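Reproducibility note. Readers wishing to regenerate the assembly model reported in the main text can use the exact inputs given here. Chain order matters: entities are listed in the order in which they were concatenated for prediction.
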Amino acid sequence: MNFKEELQAKTEQAEETLKQYLPEEKGYQKTVLSAMNYSVLAGGKRLRPILMKETYEMFGGSGRVVEPFMVAIEMIHNYSLVHDDLPCMDNDEYRRGRKTTHVVYGEGMAVLAGDALLNYAFETAALAFELPEVQEDVSLLKAVGKAMGILAVKAGVYGMIGGQTADVEAEEFPPEKVTEDLLLFIHEHKTAALIQNAMMIGAVLAGASPEETAKIEKIAYNIGIAFQIQDDILDVTSTLEVLGKPVGSDEKNHKVTYVTLNGLKKSEEEVKRLSEEAMKELGSFGKRNLFLEKLVEDLITREK
Amino acid sequence: MNFKEELQAKTEQAEETLKQYLPEEKGYQKTVLSAMNYSVLAGGKRLRPILMKETYEMFGGSGRVVEPFMVAIEMIHNYSLVHDDLPCMDNDEYRRGRKTTHVVYGEGMAVLAGDALLNYAFETAALAFELPEVQEDVSLLKAVGKAMGILAVKAGVYGMIGGQTADVEAEEFPPEKVTEDLLLFIHEHKTAALIQNAMMIGAVLAGASPEETAKIEKIAYNIGIAFQIQDDILDVTSTLEVLGKPVGSDEKNHKVTYVTLNGLKKSEEEVKRLSEEAMKELGSFGKRNLFLEKLVEDLITREK
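Running the prediction on these inputs yields the following C-alpha coordinates for the assembly.
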Protein backbone atom coordinates (compact mmCIF):
# COMPACT_ATOMS: atom_id res chain seq x y z
CA MET A 1 0.00 0.00 0.00
CA ASN A 2 1.19 3.49 -0.77
CA PHE A 3 0.59 6.34 1.69
CA LYS A 4 -2.71 7.43 0.16
CA GLU A 5 -4.14 3.92 0.30
CA GLU A 6 -2.92 3.42 3.82
CA LEU A 7 -4.44 6.72 4.90
CA GLN A 8 -7.70 5.72 3.24
CA ALA A 9 -7.73 2.39 5.09
CA LYS A 10 -6.97 4.03 8.42
CA THR A 11 -9.69 6.64 7.86
CA GLU A 12 -12.17 3.84 7.26
CA GLN A 13 -11.01 2.05 10.42
CA ALA A 14 -11.47 5.24 12.46
CA GLU A 15 -14.92 5.66 10.92
CA GLU A 16 -15.84 2.11 11.93
CA THR A 17 -14.67 2.67 15.51
CA LEU A 18 -16.69 5.88 15.64
CA LYS A 19 -19.85 4.17 14.41
CA GLN A 20 -19.61 1.52 17.13
CA TYR A 21 -19.97 4.18 19.80
CA LEU A 22 -22.65 6.40 18.27
CA PRO A 23 -26.03 6.45 20.05
CA GLU A 24 -29.05 4.60 18.74
CA GLU A 25 -31.72 6.98 17.50
CA LYS A 26 -34.67 6.04 19.71
CA GLY A 27 -36.69 7.17 22.71
CA TYR A 28 -38.27 10.52 23.56
CA GLN A 29 -34.86 12.14 23.03
CA LYS A 30 -34.56 10.72 19.51
CA THR A 31 -34.27 14.11 17.81
CA VAL A 32 -31.11 15.15 19.61
CA LEU A 33 -29.60 11.70 18.96
CA SER A 34 -30.35 12.05 15.25
CA ALA A 35 -28.87 15.54 15.19
CA MET A 36 -25.69 14.24 16.86
CA ASN A 37 -25.31 11.45 14.33
CA TYR A 38 -26.14 13.77 11.44
CA SER A 39 -23.30 16.06 12.40
CA VAL A 40 -20.73 13.35 13.20
CA LEU A 41 -21.47 11.30 10.07
CA ALA A 42 -21.15 14.26 7.70
CA GLY A 43 -17.75 12.92 6.71
CA GLY A 44 -14.45 14.52 7.56
CA LYS A 45 -10.89 13.35 7.58
CA ARG A 46 -11.00 11.78 11.09
CA LEU A 47 -7.55 13.29 11.43
CA ARG A 48 -7.52 13.59 15.23
CA PRO A 49 -8.51 9.98 15.96
CA ILE A 50 -5.90 8.81 13.44
CA LEU A 51 -3.18 10.99 14.99
CA MET A 52 -4.13 9.62 18.41
CA LYS A 53 -4.00 5.99 17.35
CA GLU A 54 -0.75 6.37 15.42
CA THR A 55 0.92 8.05 18.39
CA TYR A 56 -0.47 5.31 20.64
CA GLU A 57 1.05 2.66 18.36
CA MET A 58 4.34 4.52 18.07
CA PHE A 59 4.73 4.19 21.84
CA GLY A 60 3.89 0.50 21.63
CA GLY A 61 0.20 0.62 22.50
CA SER A 62 -1.90 -2.24 21.17
CA GLY A 63 -5.02 -2.42 23.34
CA ARG A 64 -8.59 -1.23 22.93
CA VAL A 65 -8.29 1.48 25.57
CA VAL A 66 -7.52 4.07 22.91
CA GLU A 67 -10.84 3.55 21.10
CA PRO A 68 -13.21 5.42 23.44
CA PHE A 69 -10.78 8.35 23.36
CA MET A 70 -10.56 8.31 19.54
CA VAL A 71 -14.34 8.63 19.48
CA ALA A 72 -14.32 11.31 22.18
CA ILE A 73 -11.88 13.60 20.38
CA GLU A 74 -13.86 13.35 17.15
CA MET A 75 -17.06 14.24 19.05
CA ILE A 76 -15.40 17.28 20.57
CA HIS A 77 -14.23 18.38 17.13
CA ASN A 78 -17.76 17.94 15.78
CA TYR A 79 -19.57 19.71 18.61
CA SER A 80 -17.32 22.71 18.04
CA LEU A 81 -18.34 22.76 14.36
CA VAL A 82 -22.06 22.55 15.22
CA HIS A 83 -21.82 25.48 17.62
CA ASP A 84 -19.46 27.49 15.35
CA ASP A 85 -22.00 27.26 12.54
CA LEU A 86 -24.86 28.71 14.66
CA PRO A 87 -26.45 31.98 13.49
CA CYS A 88 -25.06 33.78 16.57
CA MET A 89 -21.56 32.53 15.72
CA ASP A 90 -20.36 32.17 12.07
CA ASN A 91 -23.87 31.69 10.70
CA ASP A 92 -22.88 29.03 8.16
CA GLU A 93 -25.62 27.17 6.33
CA TYR A 94 -23.43 24.60 4.62
CA ARG A 95 -20.52 22.45 5.69
CA ARG A 96 -18.89 19.69 3.64
CA GLY A 97 -21.62 20.24 1.05
CA ARG A 98 -24.47 19.46 3.46
CA LYS A 99 -26.82 21.72 5.34
CA THR A 100 -25.53 22.51 8.82
CA THR A 101 -27.19 21.04 11.90
CA HIS A 102 -29.17 24.15 12.87
CA VAL A 103 -30.56 24.48 9.34
CA VAL A 104 -31.88 20.90 9.45
CA TYR A 105 -32.89 20.61 13.13
CA GLY A 106 -33.47 24.22 14.19
CA GLU A 107 -31.28 26.46 16.29
CA GLY A 108 -32.38 25.27 19.74
CA MET A 109 -31.85 21.63 18.81
CA ALA A 110 -28.41 22.46 17.36
CA VAL A 111 -27.39 24.04 20.67
CA LEU A 112 -28.57 20.87 22.43
CA ALA A 113 -26.89 18.58 19.88
CA GLY A 114 -23.57 20.40 20.38
CA ASP A 115 -23.92 20.15 24.15
CA ALA A 116 -24.86 16.50 23.75
CA LEU A 117 -21.78 15.73 21.64
CA LEU A 118 -19.44 17.45 24.08
CA ASN A 119 -21.04 15.59 26.98
CA TYR A 120 -21.07 12.29 25.06
CA ALA A 121 -17.35 12.68 24.44
CA PHE A 122 -16.69 12.39 28.19
CA GLU A 123 -19.37 9.72 28.57
CA THR A 124 -17.61 7.66 25.91
CA ALA A 125 -14.11 8.30 27.24
CA ALA A 126 -15.26 7.22 30.73
CA LEU A 127 -16.13 3.80 29.27
CA ALA A 128 -12.38 3.18 29.14
CA PHE A 129 -12.36 2.81 32.94
CA GLU A 130 -14.63 -0.24 32.70
CA LEU A 131 -12.46 -2.18 30.23
CA PRO A 132 -11.02 -5.35 31.85
CA GLU A 133 -7.50 -4.43 30.63
CA VAL A 134 -7.83 -1.17 32.59
CA GLN A 135 -9.48 -2.57 35.74
CA GLU A 136 -6.67 -5.12 36.03
CA ASP A 137 -3.73 -2.76 35.55
CA VAL A 138 -3.19 0.10 38.01
CA SER A 139 -0.74 2.02 35.80
CA LEU A 140 -3.19 1.89 32.90
CA LEU A 141 -5.98 2.99 35.26
CA LYS A 142 -3.89 6.01 36.23
CA ALA A 143 -3.08 6.67 32.58
CA VAL A 144 -6.79 6.71 31.72
CA GLY A 145 -7.35 9.24 34.54
CA LYS A 146 -4.55 11.38 33.12
CA ALA A 147 -5.99 11.06 29.60
CA MET A 148 -9.40 12.30 30.88
CA GLY A 149 -7.66 15.38 32.24
CA ILE A 150 -5.85 16.05 28.95
CA LEU A 151 -9.06 15.53 26.98
CA ALA A 152 -10.84 18.15 29.08
CA VAL A 153 -8.05 20.73 29.48
CA LYS A 154 -7.04 20.86 25.82
CA ALA A 155 -10.69 21.21 24.75
CA GLY A 156 -11.59 23.87 27.30
CA VAL A 157 -10.86 27.48 28.21
CA TYR A 158 -7.12 26.75 28.32
CA GLY A 159 -7.42 24.95 24.99
CA MET A 160 -9.88 25.05 22.10
CA ILE A 161 -12.64 27.15 23.72
CA GLY A 162 -10.02 29.69 24.81
CA GLY A 163 -8.81 30.01 21.22
CA GLN A 164 -12.34 30.22 19.91
CA THR A 165 -13.14 33.04 22.36
CA ALA A 166 -10.08 35.05 21.33
CA ASP A 167 -10.87 34.47 17.66
CA VAL A 168 -14.49 35.62 17.97
CA GLU A 169 -13.32 38.80 19.69
CA ALA A 170 -10.41 39.45 17.31
CA GLU A 171 -12.84 39.54 14.39
CA GLU A 172 -14.24 42.77 15.80
CA PHE A 173 -10.82 44.32 16.45
CA PRO A 174 -9.27 47.07 14.30
CA PRO A 175 -6.33 45.49 12.36
CA GLU A 176 -3.63 47.17 14.50
CA LYS A 177 -4.95 45.38 17.59
CA VAL A 178 -4.42 41.95 16.03
CA THR A 179 -0.79 41.33 17.05
CA GLU A 180 1.36 38.33 16.21
CA ASP A 181 1.13 37.32 19.86
CA LEU A 182 -2.67 37.25 19.69
CA LEU A 183 -2.66 35.39 16.36
CA LEU A 184 -0.31 32.73 17.73
CA PHE A 185 -2.51 32.41 20.83
CA ILE A 186 -5.52 31.78 18.62
CA HIS A 187 -3.71 29.23 16.43
CA GLU A 188 -2.19 27.48 19.42
CA HIS A 189 -5.52 27.12 21.19
CA LYS A 190 -8.04 26.89 18.40
CA THR A 191 -6.05 24.58 16.13
CA ALA A 192 -3.01 23.09 17.86
CA ALA A 193 -4.73 22.23 21.16
CA LEU A 194 -6.90 19.45 19.68
CA ILE A 195 -3.87 18.00 17.86
CA GLN A 196 -1.97 18.07 21.16
CA ASN A 197 -5.02 16.54 22.80
CA ALA A 198 -5.09 13.64 20.35
CA MET A 199 -1.37 12.91 20.29
CA MET A 200 -0.77 13.37 24.03
CA ILE A 201 -3.62 10.98 24.89
CA GLY A 202 -2.19 8.44 22.46
CA ALA A 203 1.20 8.74 24.17
CA VAL A 204 -0.12 8.62 27.74
CA LEU A 205 -2.35 5.59 27.13
CA ALA A 206 0.61 3.70 25.68
CA GLY A 207 2.63 4.43 28.81
CA ALA A 208 4.82 7.27 27.56
CA SER A 209 6.81 9.08 30.28
CA PRO A 210 6.00 12.68 31.27
CA GLU A 211 9.11 13.79 29.34
CA GLU A 212 8.01 11.95 26.21
CA THR A 213 4.49 13.35 26.57
CA ALA A 214 5.87 16.89 26.88
CA LYS A 215 7.88 16.32 23.71
CA ILE A 216 4.74 15.15 21.91
CA GLU A 217 2.95 18.27 23.15
CA LYS A 218 5.65 20.43 21.55
CA ILE A 219 5.60 18.45 18.30
CA ALA A 220 1.81 18.80 18.08
CA TYR A 221 2.15 22.52 18.77
CA ASN A 222 4.50 22.85 15.80
CA ILE A 223 2.17 20.81 13.60
CA GLY A 224 -0.84 22.94 14.53
CA ILE A 225 0.88 26.28 14.00
CA ALA A 226 2.56 25.19 10.77
CA PHE A 227 -0.77 23.83 9.50
CA GLN A 228 -2.47 27.14 10.21
CA ILE A 229 0.23 29.33 8.65
CA GLN A 230 0.21 27.06 5.60
CA ASP A 231 -3.55 27.67 5.43
CA ASP A 232 -2.93 31.42 5.36
CA ILE A 233 -0.21 31.00 2.71
CA LEU A 234 -2.54 28.94 0.54
CA ASP A 235 -5.20 31.61 0.84
CA VAL A 236 -2.80 33.98 -0.93
CA THR A 237 -1.07 31.68 -3.39
CA SER A 238 -3.56 29.03 -4.35
CA THR A 239 -5.94 29.25 -7.25
CA LEU A 240 -9.69 29.07 -6.86
CA GLU A 241 -9.63 25.77 -8.70
CA VAL A 242 -7.34 24.02 -6.23
CA LEU A 243 -8.68 25.49 -3.03
CA GLY A 244 -12.40 25.84 -3.74
CA LYS A 245 -12.65 29.38 -2.47
CA PRO A 246 -11.71 32.75 -3.99
CA VAL A 247 -7.97 33.46 -3.80
CA GLY A 248 -7.00 35.95 -1.17
CA SER A 249 -10.33 35.85 0.64
CA ASP A 250 -8.57 36.77 3.89
CA GLU A 251 -7.22 39.96 2.31
CA LYS A 252 -10.62 40.83 0.85
CA ASN A 253 -12.16 40.38 4.31
CA HIS A 254 -9.39 42.56 5.75
CA LYS A 255 -8.46 39.62 7.91
CA VAL A 256 -5.13 39.87 9.69
CA THR A 257 -3.17 36.65 9.29
CA TYR A 258 0.37 35.51 9.89
CA VAL A 259 1.01 36.19 6.19
CA THR A 260 -0.42 39.72 6.14
CA LEU A 261 1.71 40.48 9.24
CA ASN A 262 4.99 38.88 8.16
CA GLY A 263 4.83 38.49 4.39
CA LEU A 264 4.91 35.32 2.29
CA LYS A 265 8.64 34.68 2.48
CA LYS A 266 8.96 34.77 6.25
CA SER A 267 5.75 32.74 6.58
CA GLU A 268 7.08 30.01 4.30
CA GLU A 269 10.34 29.96 6.23
CA GLU A 270 8.44 29.62 9.50
CA VAL A 271 6.39 26.70 8.20
CA LYS A 272 9.64 25.06 7.10
CA ARG A 273 11.29 25.65 10.47
CA LEU A 274 8.32 24.38 12.53
CA SER A 275 7.89 21.42 10.25
CA GLU A 276 11.56 20.39 10.27
CA GLU A 277 11.71 20.71 14.03
CA ALA A 278 8.57 18.56 14.43
CA MET A 279 9.87 15.92 12.03
CA LYS A 280 13.24 15.77 13.73
CA GLU A 281 11.66 15.36 17.17
CA LEU A 282 9.16 12.82 15.90
CA GLY A 283 12.02 10.72 14.56
CA SER A 284 13.96 10.94 17.82
CA PHE A 285 11.96 8.51 19.99
CA GLY A 286 13.16 4.96 20.48
CA LYS A 287 10.47 3.64 18.14
CA ARG A 288 9.40 5.37 14.94
CA ASN A 289 6.09 5.38 13.11
CA LEU A 290 6.84 6.16 9.47
CA PHE A 291 3.18 6.46 8.54
CA LEU A 292 2.68 9.09 11.25
CA GLU A 293 5.74 10.98 10.03
CA LYS A 294 4.44 10.96 6.46
CA LEU A 295 0.97 12.03 7.64
CA VAL A 296 2.38 14.99 9.54
CA GLU A 297 4.55 16.00 6.56
CA ASP A 298 1.55 15.69 4.28
CA LEU A 299 -0.60 17.85 6.55
CA ILE A 300 1.86 20.68 6.71
CA THR A 301 3.08 20.75 3.13
CA ARG A 302 -0.32 20.21 1.54
CA GLU A 303 -1.20 22.41 -1.43
CA LYS A 304 -4.93 22.51 -0.87
CA MET B 1 -28.08 25.11 65.18
CA ASN B 2 -31.54 24.55 63.80
CA PHE B 3 -32.06 23.17 60.30
CA LYS B 4 -32.25 26.55 58.60
CA GLU B 5 -28.98 27.71 60.15
CA GLU B 6 -27.29 24.44 59.33
CA LEU B 7 -28.48 24.64 55.72
CA GLN B 8 -27.21 28.21 55.53
CA ALA B 9 -23.79 27.17 56.84
CA LYS B 10 -23.57 24.26 54.41
CA THR B 11 -24.59 26.48 51.50
CA GLU B 12 -21.79 28.88 52.39
CA GLN B 13 -19.32 25.98 52.60
CA ALA B 14 -20.38 24.75 49.16
CA GLU B 15 -20.02 28.29 47.83
CA GLU B 16 -16.48 28.49 49.23
CA THR B 17 -15.51 25.17 47.64
CA LEU B 18 -16.93 26.37 44.34
CA LYS B 19 -14.96 29.63 44.45
CA GLN B 20 -11.69 27.76 44.98
CA TYR B 21 -12.08 26.05 41.63
CA LEU B 22 -13.36 28.93 39.48
CA PRO B 23 -11.00 30.18 36.76
CA GLU B 24 -9.03 33.41 37.11
CA GLU B 25 -10.28 36.06 34.70
CA LYS B 26 -7.16 36.76 32.67
CA GLY B 27 -5.51 36.16 29.29
CA TYR B 28 -6.84 36.52 25.75
CA GLN B 29 -9.78 34.31 26.72
CA LYS B 30 -10.72 36.57 29.65
CA THR B 31 -14.24 37.31 28.36
CA VAL B 32 -15.41 33.70 28.41
CA LEU B 33 -13.87 33.23 31.88
CA SER B 34 -15.76 36.30 33.14
CA ALA B 35 -18.99 35.04 31.58
CA MET B 36 -18.53 31.65 33.29
CA ASN B 37 -17.99 33.26 36.68
CA TYR B 38 -20.85 35.69 36.14
CA SER B 39 -23.25 32.83 35.60
CA VAL B 40 -21.94 30.56 38.39
CA LEU B 41 -21.78 33.33 40.98
CA ALA B 42 -25.33 34.55 40.36
CA GLY B 43 -26.35 32.80 43.57
CA GLY B 44 -28.47 29.72 43.78
CA LYS B 45 -29.14 27.16 46.46
CA ARG B 46 -26.09 24.95 45.66
CA LEU B 47 -28.50 22.10 46.28
CA ARG B 48 -26.73 19.50 44.14
CA PRO B 49 -23.27 19.93 45.71
CA ILE B 50 -24.87 19.80 49.16
CA LEU B 51 -26.82 16.63 48.32
CA MET B 52 -23.60 15.09 47.00
CA LYS B 53 -21.56 15.91 50.07
CA GLU B 54 -24.26 14.81 52.51
CA THR B 55 -24.65 11.48 50.74
CA TYR B 56 -20.85 11.13 50.72
CA GLU B 57 -20.78 11.72 54.48
CA MET B 58 -23.71 9.41 55.11
CA PHE B 59 -21.64 6.58 53.62
CA GLY B 60 -18.69 7.53 55.79
CA GLY B 61 -16.72 9.65 53.31
CA SER B 62 -14.44 12.25 54.84
CA GLY B 63 -11.80 13.09 52.19
CA ARG B 64 -11.35 15.90 49.69
CA VAL B 65 -12.07 13.73 46.67
CA VAL B 66 -15.71 14.83 46.67
CA GLU B 67 -14.87 18.52 46.20
CA PRO B 68 -13.97 18.55 42.49
CA PHE B 69 -17.20 16.66 41.82
CA MET B 70 -19.29 19.09 43.92
CA VAL B 71 -17.94 21.88 41.73
CA ALA B 72 -18.47 19.88 38.56
CA ILE B 73 -22.16 19.18 39.20
CA GLU B 74 -22.82 22.85 39.98
CA MET B 75 -21.10 23.84 36.72
CA ILE B 76 -23.22 21.42 34.76
CA HIS B 77 -26.35 22.83 36.39
CA ASN B 78 -25.23 26.36 35.52
CA TYR B 79 -24.24 25.67 31.91
CA SER B 80 -27.72 24.22 31.36
CA LEU B 81 -29.26 27.47 32.66
CA VAL B 82 -27.04 29.62 30.40
CA HIS B 83 -28.03 27.64 27.31
CA ASP B 84 -31.71 27.35 28.36
CA ASP B 85 -31.93 31.13 28.62
CA LEU B 86 -30.64 31.70 25.05
CA PRO B 87 -32.96 33.46 22.59
CA CYS B 88 -33.26 30.27 20.53
CA MET B 89 -34.31 28.34 23.66
CA ASP B 90 -36.47 29.96 26.40
CA ASN B 91 -35.33 33.50 25.57
CA ASP B 92 -35.15 34.65 29.19
CA GLU B 93 -33.58 38.02 29.94
CA TYR B 94 -33.55 37.73 33.72
CA ARG B 95 -32.65 34.98 36.17
CA ARG B 96 -32.44 35.34 39.94
CA GLY B 97 -33.02 39.07 39.46
CA ARG B 98 -29.96 39.58 37.25
CA LYS B 99 -29.60 39.88 33.51
CA THR B 100 -28.89 36.53 31.88
CA THR B 101 -25.47 35.73 30.42
CA HIS B 102 -26.38 36.34 26.78
CA VAL B 103 -27.90 39.74 27.63
CA VAL B 104 -24.65 40.84 29.30
CA TYR B 105 -22.06 39.09 27.08
CA GLY B 106 -23.90 38.58 23.79
CA GLU B 107 -25.36 35.44 22.34
CA GLY B 108 -22.20 33.96 20.82
CA MET B 109 -20.25 34.41 24.03
CA ALA B 110 -23.11 32.83 26.02
CA VAL B 111 -22.95 29.74 23.79
CA LEU B 112 -19.19 29.59 24.42
CA ALA B 113 -19.59 30.22 28.16
CA GLY B 114 -22.09 27.35 28.43
CA ASP B 115 -19.76 25.06 26.49
CA ALA B 116 -16.89 26.23 28.67
CA LEU B 117 -18.78 25.44 31.90
CA LEU B 118 -19.76 21.98 30.71
CA ASN B 119 -16.18 21.29 29.65
CA TYR B 120 -14.76 22.81 32.85
CA ALA B 121 -16.98 20.48 34.87
CA PHE B 122 -15.08 17.47 33.51
CA GLU B 123 -11.77 19.33 33.71
CA THR B 124 -12.42 19.98 37.40
CA ALA B 125 -13.69 16.46 38.12
CA ALA B 126 -10.57 15.01 36.46
CA LEU B 127 -8.45 16.84 39.06
CA ALA B 128 -9.69 14.22 41.54
CA PHE B 129 -7.41 11.64 39.86
CA GLU B 130 -4.34 13.62 40.85
CA LEU B 131 -5.14 13.84 44.57
CA PRO B 132 -2.59 11.87 46.65
CA GLU B 133 -5.43 10.09 48.50
CA VAL B 134 -6.63 8.79 45.12
CA GLN B 135 -3.25 7.92 43.60
CA GLU B 136 -2.43 5.83 46.66
CA ASP B 137 -5.69 3.87 46.86
CA VAL B 138 -6.71 1.64 43.95
CA SER B 139 -10.35 1.24 45.07
CA LEU B 140 -10.71 5.00 45.33
CA LEU B 141 -9.07 5.38 41.91
CA LYS B 142 -11.67 3.01 40.48
CA ALA B 143 -14.43 4.86 42.31
CA VAL B 144 -13.31 8.15 40.76
CA GLY B 145 -13.44 6.50 37.33
CA LYS B 146 -16.96 5.29 38.07
CA ALA B 147 -17.97 8.75 39.31
CA MET B 148 -16.73 10.30 36.04
CA GLY B 149 -19.02 7.94 34.16
CA ILE B 150 -22.01 8.81 36.35
CA LEU B 151 -21.29 12.53 36.01
CA ALA B 152 -21.34 12.25 32.23
CA VAL B 153 -24.21 9.78 31.75
CA LYS B 154 -26.68 11.52 34.06
CA ALA B 155 -25.94 14.90 32.44
CA GLY B 156 -26.14 13.69 28.86
CA VAL B 157 -28.61 12.33 26.33
CA TYR B 158 -29.65 9.56 28.74
CA GLY B 159 -29.95 12.13 31.51
CA MET B 160 -30.48 15.88 31.61
CA ILE B 161 -29.98 16.69 27.92
CA GLY B 162 -32.39 13.89 27.02
CA GLY B 163 -35.05 15.43 29.27
CA GLN B 164 -34.37 18.88 27.92
CA THR B 165 -34.78 17.64 24.35
CA ALA B 166 -38.13 15.98 25.12
CA ASP B 167 -39.29 19.09 26.98
CA VAL B 168 -38.41 21.46 24.13
CA GLU B 169 -40.33 19.25 21.71
CA ALA B 170 -43.32 18.70 24.02
CA GLU B 171 -43.88 22.45 24.17
CA GLU B 172 -44.90 22.33 20.51
CA PHE B 173 -47.17 19.30 20.93
CA PRO B 174 -50.99 19.47 21.01
CA PRO B 175 -52.13 18.73 24.61
CA GLU B 176 -53.38 15.21 23.82
CA LYS B 177 -49.87 14.19 22.74
CA VAL B 178 -48.40 15.03 26.14
CA THR B 179 -48.98 11.74 27.94
CA GLU B 180 -48.16 10.89 31.54
CA ASP B 181 -45.40 8.63 30.24
CA LEU B 182 -43.79 11.54 28.37
CA LEU B 183 -44.19 13.89 31.36
CA LEU B 184 -42.53 11.41 33.68
CA PHE B 185 -39.72 10.92 31.16
CA ILE B 186 -39.12 14.68 31.14
CA HIS B 187 -39.19 14.97 34.94
CA GLU B 188 -36.99 11.93 35.40
CA HIS B 189 -34.36 13.19 32.99
CA LYS B 190 -34.57 16.96 33.23
CA THR B 191 -34.93 17.15 37.02
CA ALA B 192 -34.26 13.84 38.74
CA ALA B 193 -31.14 12.93 36.72
CA LEU B 194 -28.95 15.67 38.22
CA ILE B 195 -30.14 14.76 41.74
CA GLN B 196 -29.29 11.13 40.99
CA ASN B 197 -25.98 12.34 39.59
CA ALA B 198 -25.13 14.23 42.78
CA MET B 199 -26.23 11.57 45.26
CA MET B 200 -24.84 8.57 43.35
CA ILE B 201 -21.42 10.21 43.03
CA GLY B 202 -21.45 10.96 46.75
CA ALA B 203 -22.23 7.31 47.46
CA VAL B 204 -19.68 5.86 45.02
CA LEU B 205 -16.83 8.09 46.21
CA ALA B 206 -17.49 7.00 49.80
CA GLY B 207 -17.25 3.37 48.78
CA ALA B 208 -20.94 2.43 48.64
CA SER B 209 -21.67 -0.96 47.08
CA PRO B 210 -23.44 -1.26 43.70
CA GLU B 211 -26.62 -2.29 45.58
CA GLU B 212 -26.44 0.76 47.84
CA THR B 213 -25.76 3.01 44.84
CA ALA B 214 -28.78 1.56 43.02
CA LYS B 215 -30.91 2.30 46.09
CA ILE B 216 -29.63 5.88 46.14
CA GLU B 217 -30.50 6.16 42.44
CA LYS B 218 -34.09 5.14 43.22
CA ILE B 219 -34.34 7.50 46.20
CA ALA B 220 -33.07 10.41 44.08
CA TYR B 221 -35.58 9.48 41.39
CA ASN B 222 -38.40 9.75 43.93
CA ILE B 223 -37.07 13.06 45.21
CA GLY B 224 -36.83 14.51 41.70
CA ILE B 225 -40.31 13.42 40.61
CA ALA B 226 -41.95 14.44 43.91
CA PHE B 227 -40.18 17.82 43.72
CA GLN B 228 -41.50 18.39 40.21
CA ILE B 229 -45.09 17.34 40.94
CA GLN B 230 -45.01 19.56 44.04
CA ASP B 231 -43.93 22.38 41.74
CA ASP B 232 -46.98 21.76 39.55
CA ILE B 233 -49.25 21.60 42.62
CA LEU B 234 -47.88 24.89 43.90
CA ASP B 235 -48.55 26.47 40.54
CA VAL B 236 -52.24 25.76 41.09
CA THR B 237 -52.61 26.32 44.83
CA SER B 238 -50.10 28.93 45.82
CA THR B 239 -50.78 32.63 45.93
CA LEU B 240 -48.84 35.15 43.91
CA GLU B 241 -47.37 36.50 47.12
CA VAL B 242 -45.79 33.25 48.20
CA LEU B 243 -44.64 31.98 44.82
CA GLY B 244 -43.70 35.19 43.02
CA LYS B 245 -45.54 34.33 39.83
CA PRO B 246 -49.22 34.45 38.85
CA VAL B 247 -51.22 31.53 40.22
CA GLY B 248 -52.05 28.90 37.69
CA SER B 249 -49.56 30.15 35.09
CA ASP B 250 -49.27 26.61 33.72
CA GLU B 251 -53.01 26.51 33.06
CA LYS B 252 -52.95 29.93 31.41
CA ASN B 253 -50.10 28.73 29.18
CA HIS B 254 -52.16 25.61 28.40
CA LYS B 255 -49.25 23.63 29.75
CA VAL B 256 -49.95 19.97 30.43
CA THR B 257 -48.63 18.98 33.86
CA TYR B 258 -49.01 16.04 36.19
CA VAL B 259 -51.73 18.05 37.95
CA THR B 260 -53.72 18.93 34.83
CA LEU B 261 -53.57 15.24 33.86
CA ASN B 262 -54.38 13.65 37.23
CA GLY B 263 -56.03 16.34 39.34
CA LEU B 264 -54.84 17.88 42.61
CA LYS B 265 -55.88 15.07 44.91
CA LYS B 266 -54.11 12.28 43.07
CA SER B 267 -51.05 14.51 42.61
CA GLU B 268 -50.84 15.23 46.32
CA GLU B 269 -51.19 11.54 47.09
CA GLU B 270 -48.40 10.73 44.63
CA VAL B 271 -46.04 13.30 46.20
CA LYS B 272 -46.82 11.76 49.59
CA ARG B 273 -46.18 8.23 48.33
CA LEU B 274 -42.89 9.08 46.59
CA SER B 275 -41.75 11.12 49.53
CA GLU B 276 -42.56 8.48 52.15
CA GLU B 277 -40.86 5.79 50.09
CA ALA B 278 -37.75 7.94 49.70
CA MET B 279 -37.62 8.79 53.41
CA LYS B 280 -38.07 5.17 54.39
CA GLU B 281 -35.27 4.01 52.09
CA LEU B 282 -33.01 6.86 53.15
CA GLY B 283 -33.39 5.79 56.77
CA SER B 284 -32.67 2.14 55.97
CA PHE B 285 -28.89 2.26 55.45
CA GLY B 286 -26.54 1.29 58.23
CA LYS B 287 -25.66 4.90 58.89
CA ARG B 288 -28.14 7.75 58.81
CA ASN B 289 -27.69 11.41 57.99
CA LEU B 290 -30.51 13.30 59.71
CA PHE B 291 -29.64 16.59 58.04
CA LEU B 292 -29.93 14.95 54.63
CA GLU B 293 -33.28 13.43 55.59
CA LYS B 294 -34.58 16.82 56.73
CA LEU B 295 -33.25 18.49 53.57
CA VAL B 296 -35.04 15.99 51.34
CA GLU B 297 -38.28 16.36 53.32
CA ASP B 298 -37.95 20.13 53.12
CA LEU B 299 -37.41 20.05 49.37
CA ILE B 300 -40.46 17.96 48.67
CA THR B 301 -42.96 19.50 51.10
CA ARG B 302 -41.94 23.12 50.49
CA GLU B 303 -44.73 25.62 50.05
CA LYS B 304 -42.89 27.98 47.74
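We highlight two features of this model. DSSP finds 15 helices and two strands in chain A. The CA atoms of residues 138 and 167 of chain A lie 41 Å apart.
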